[in-house]
Design brief:
alpha/beta, UDP N-Acetylglucosamine Acyltransferase, domain 1, six-stranded mixed sheet, 1 helix, 18 strands
């Protein structure tokens, strides 16, 4: 029972944070997205954040839509049912297709096609043709 309450309370809080990003910052985020309390979304160019349904962004992840050094402001697009691992970084202008998994600590500098797992710095594909369900949970076939 305790775990049940903990999980539902946590998801409720995360859904409120998602709504905050949508309504206050005007980010294009689906309501079913879950963003960890410690994740960072770029508020310098908030309208450049686009996240599809069923995606989960883990603790310490950073999604950047601007680069002050190079004076770049580019949109970041993350597809549906993706998982962005802890302490990973998504650089400005990157597009992640649907059902992508970004490993913990990865630095994504280039576009990632749908159904791909990427890892490393810079991130490279380590597996393709995967399928995920809501919150980016890998479906084993």
């Amino acid at each position: 029972m305790k775990r049940f309450i903990h999980v539902y309370v946590r998801h409720f809080i995360l859904s409120i944070i998602t709504l905050w990003y949508i309504h206050f910052y005007k980010m294009n985020i689906h309501k079913s997205v879950r963003i960890s309390l410690k994740a960072k979304l770029d508020k310098t160019n908030p309208k450049g954040v686009h996240i599809g349904a069923g995606t989960y962004i883990a603790f310490g992840s950073v999604i950047l839509t601007h680069d002050m050094c190079r004076d770049i402001h580019k949109d970041v697009r993350i597809g549906e049912n993706c998982f962005i691992g802890g302490n990973s970084i998504i650089m400005p202008g990157v597009t992640l297709g649907d059902s992508c998994i970004v490993a913990a600590g990865a630095v994504v500098t280039k576009d990632v096609s749908s159904g791909t797992i990427v890892a490393g710095n810079p991130a490279v594909a380590i597996r393709t043709n995967i399928k995920t369900k809501a919150l980016g949970i890998l479906i084993n076939e």
